[in-house]
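Researcher: Sequence recovery benchmark, item below. Answer with residues only.
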């Protein structure tokens, strides 16, 4: 399901990328935990001059979050969210939207969740919805 989301991300912009890191190295989780991070990135030659870079990053994470929620229903729940900048809105607005703790000024934008999410397929979802 995450691969499907990543494959269709180009519809929102050709510079948008999703990466899955299953070797999370952050103080937010134990090193041996079953946590993965879905990294959202904008790959431009010079992204430093984008006036609305923070807003674009926030929107990209929000779209990823909504697509994952839509495709997996209640099975998707982020554990934490990382922003590579200070928040544009009050932090509690981000927490309410993502239903998760939000870490600011991180190395990259990311959604953190249990590895079990990687096993969800669209076939699994259609069979659980019809049951």
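Model:
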């Amino acid at each position: 399901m995450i691969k499907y989301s990543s494959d269709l991300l180009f519809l929102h912009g050709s510079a948008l990328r999703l990466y899955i890191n299953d070797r999370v190295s952050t103080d937010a989780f134990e090193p041996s935990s079953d946590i993965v991070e879905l990294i959202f990135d904008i790959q431009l030659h010079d992204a430093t001059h984008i006036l609305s870079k923070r807003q674009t990053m926030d929107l990209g994470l929000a779209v990823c979050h909504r697509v994952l929620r839509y495709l997996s229903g209640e099975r998707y729940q982020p554990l934490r969210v990382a922003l590579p900048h200070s928040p544009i809105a009050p932090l509690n607005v981000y927490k309410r939207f993502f239903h998760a703790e939000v870490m600011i000024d991180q190395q990259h934008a990311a959604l953190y969740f249990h590895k079990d999410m990687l096993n969800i397929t669209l076939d699994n979802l259609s069979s659980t919805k019809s049951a």
